[in-house]
Amino acid sequence: MRGRGISQRISMLVAAAVFTAVALVTAIFAYNDVTSDFAARKRAFEATAYVFASAIAEHVAEHDTQGSLKVLRSISRIPDISYAAVLDRDGRAFASLGSAIVMDAGELKSDIGILEALRTGFYPVAVDIIKSGEKIGQVLLIVRISELRDQLLEVVLTSLFVAFSAIAISFLLAHRLQRNITDPIRSLIEAMRDVSASRTYDRQVKTAAEGETGQLVGSFNAMISEIRGRDEALAKHRQTLESTVEQRTQELRLARDAAESANQAKTSFLATMSHEIRTPLNGLMVMAELLAGAGLDQRLQRYAEVIVKSGQSLLTIINDILDLSKIEAGKLELEVIPLNPASIADDVTSLYWERAASTGLDLAARVAPGVPRLILGDPVRLNQILSNLVNNALKFTERGQVLVSLHHDKGQLTFSVSDSSTGIPQKKLNLLFQAFSQADQTITRKFGGTGLGLAICKRLAEAMGGTIGVKSQLGQGSTFWFSIPAGAQSEPVPFMARPPLAMSAAIAVDGLASQSALGTALAAAGLRVTVIADETAGHGVVFATAPRLRRLRHAGAQRPRVICLGSLGDSDGETTIAEGLADDLIILPLRQQDMAEMIGRLRNNTLRGLNLLERRGREPDRRASFKGRHVLVADDNAVNREVIIEVLRQLDITVQVAVNGLDALEQWRKQQPDLIFMDCSMPEMDGYAATREIRAHEHLAVAGGHTPIIALTAHVAGNDGETWRKAGMDAYMTKPFTLKQIASCLETQFTGLPPVPDSAPPAVVPGTVLDAEVLNELRNIGGSDALFRRVLDLFASRVPQAVDKVSALAIAEDAAALADAAHALKSMCANIGAHAAVAACHDLEFAARTSQDLDAGALVGAIIGEMRNVMSEVERLRAA
After folding, report:
1. pLDDT tens-digit map of 823-862
2. Phi, psi for residue 95 in degrees, rounded to 5
3. Cβ neighbour number for residue 767 with a 10 Å cutoff
4. Residue 484's closest CA among 506, 463, 507?
């Protein structure tokens, strides 16, 4: 109906509706009449057929054809029956009358529907002939129903006549009524054409239309009035536009200046107040700690503990506000110096690896191919952002892994931290980077924090010209990322170099993060990497942790080359090499440089093998060798284990480790080492109790025997200086110890010479935080800075927790636990030559073990003050 007017469309729609209604009603009534008549005729002729079947049954049973014909002739008196037949048992015509003009004999038995009957004009009726309850034939009648077709045709013609009559009438009515609708619309169209042509908006449409048409006309008139009013207002506004713009511009300028002034005042106020609050707050916290350790009654003690905890939380908040205010004040200065982004990732994972491992989490850094070795940027701020993201991931991940990833694309360097936590709801993601906001307010109650960490990370990333974001799904973990512009200043990391290393590599590591980091490095070097799932290794090279390595089966007759992944502070890696199970060693956490050096040795076929256990220092001709000796090191502190294990490696000793007294006792039973270095203070069972157990077992043994046990301690407290001897130990050594002292002790024990008295702890030199001789000895032990830096990283990650534990136990008034915690902290400080901190820890340990009325507040305050100096110096050395 395109191109037609409204009147024509209305007329055609009315006609179509009328015709459709009449046709539908006619069809329904015609169908009902025909089907009813057809059904009535069918029932009547079936009754007739049954009568004849009963009358003819005797003749059929006796095969009397003439008798059957006589009966059939009576049917000829019924005008609508054109054919009648008697069929025998086999369906053959026994007698018939008339002619079957519609279907052959084989089809006479078939029943047909009403449509087929109307088409042919005939309908078959067949009934059974029953004699003595047995079917002996059939009576078949062909009935004419042509009059039904005539009746149907008459109904259709009548309906068509009625339909066309109704259409004609509807046309007349529609034509008369539609003028009430179309006339106002025509007037409206003419008015719109005039307005469009003349561009004048004073035309009004006058009509008496009602309903929707009237509303349409009224809306048009209202629109014209609005346009006319707008034009008049615009004309007036043009006359005053220039003066109005000038006035608004001045108002905006004043508002901007006021906002900038207020913002600057706010930022200055935050910075000033944060600094001013810290000074009295520090005094408040120290006095609160002293008050908490003053032996108050239970109610007052609880008040003091609340003050201490609240002060610590307030100090954290102030520190965050200080960083934020510094950024907002525009006083943040960024360095632009060459840095290695892979080293940033390695430093952060090394810092947090011990914490992750202690909770069963796998932490590793993956560097994608194409990441440059050097970029220009601020290493301190990059480390701050990445450390915050890793710390959050470890805080909220209970099991699984945390993976740090780096990739470089089109001048953008992207760091991402993915975890296997429970995820963050989508509606909370936009709140994470807002100051003082967290995804869930229960986080503050469970883990602490101000909600400023991510906000500060966002400001730092933006200050570097980058962006930061997060992706997360519930049940699938979270990924925090930040990207900064970073043009390459050198080639990619070494193991990305070509030609590719054409060999296969299999990985048997349980942690998914370590699998990904190691697999990426190996694939970048050209190796075909697979992950071992069934503990069966094929050809090529295998990278496996010590526990997985001992369960591996080799598919071929010859063992493939095996690289063991040993943990920091653990000797299992060296043991697998000594037992011939591995050919080289990488220490977890995985560092990019370590993996690059390993790939280089694979490329040059120079795996270290047993040479790894025979390393020499800077003076190999002057160092003693105890090759073939097995020593057990029992210490619960990873820093202490790492130092003494490295010392013993320099002396060609095979080392086993234990993390507490029970573990040491079990290792002694299985390994029967030549000597034991036993830390005196350990969880589960301390060194003294473990030694007494070992001596008791030796006394009961049939063959006897005596295993030398050397006590390791930062200092023997109080009057119990001979406790080690009473427990059955052979000697003791105080920390820090040197390579020469360890060698001398071993020589004495293995050759039966009288024990050499251990030297007293070095005196504290005023103004010196860390003993330079101890630091140099740490460097000399490893022959490079690798051990030195690992010890510093472990110290930086473990000491804050140790200090917090000492503070908490001082408040709880658990003297025995407080002494053990002070001893553990003293041991770590002794390893790096922090003699003033060692002395402060010794005073607290001595007081906790010997004093009846312990006043721990001042002693803990002294430790905190010394540890601040130590941590500052450690951070300076780590950054150097």
Report:
1. 888 888 888 888 888 888 888 888 887 765 677 778 888 8
2. -155, 145
3. 6
4. 463
3-class secondary structure, 699:
helix
Of 257-261, 278-282, 407-411, least confident by mean pLDDT is 278-282
Range 335-345 average pLDDT:
86
Place of tokens 């780096």: 406
Dump strand ranges (E) for 706-786: 709-713, 731-734
Among residues 144, 143, 141, 145, which one has the least CA distance to residue 49?
141
How far is 167 from 14, CA to CA, in rounded Å? 8
Phi, psi dihedrals of residue 419, rounded to the nearest 5°: -130, 170
Question: Which residues have C-beta within 8 Å of that of residue 538, sequence separation ≥ 6?
Answer: 504, 506, 554, 555, 556, 560
**Are the CB atoms for 645 and 656 separated by under 8 Å?**
no
47 CB-side CA count, 13 A: 6
Number of H helices and E strands in the chain, helices first, is 27, 23
| Predicted local distance difference test score (pLDDT) of residue 411 | 86
Measured distance CA(667)–CA(842) in Å, rounded? 30
pLDDT in tens, 355-366: 888 888 999 999
How far is residue 880's CA from residue 878's CA, in Å, rounded to a whole number?
6
Cα angle value 188/194/199 (rounded, 5°): 125
Nearest of 794, 776, 766 to residue 350 by alpha carbon = 794
Six-digit token pair at 464? 């570097």
Percent helix, strand, coil in the chain, to 5, is 55, 15, 30
Contact 633, 570 (CB under 8 A): no
Q: Which residues of 667-693 are buried (b: 16+ CB within 10 A; e: fewer)?
A: bbeebebbbbbbbbbbeebbbbbbbbb
Output the CA angle 160-165-170, nearest 5 degrees.
Answer: 125
Q: What angle do CA 812, 813, 819 make, to 5 degrees?
A: 110
H-run or E-run covering 507: strand 504-508
Tokens representing 169 are 């009438």
Residue-level length of the chain: 880
Q: Strands, E, within 522-670: which ranges? A: 528-531, 536-537, 541-545, 553-554, 561-567, 584-588, 630-634, 654-658
Of 830, 846, 827, 813, the closest CA to residue 295 belongs to 813
Q: Which three-class secondary structure state does DSSP give residue 764?
A: coil
- pLDDT, tens digit, 9 for 90 and up, residues 477-487: 999 999 999 86
| Residue bearing the bigger pLDDT, 318 or 515 | 515
Taking the whole predicted model, whether its pTM rises above 0.85 is answered as: no
Q: Give the pair of three-digit tokens for residue 728.
A: 């059955």
Can you give the pLDDT at residue 757?
40
pLDDT tens readout for residues 83-101: 888 887 777 777 777 765 5
**Gap between the Cα atoms of 808 and 817, Å rounded:** 10
Tokens representing 408? 């470089």
Peptide linkage before 800 cis (omega within 30 of 0): no
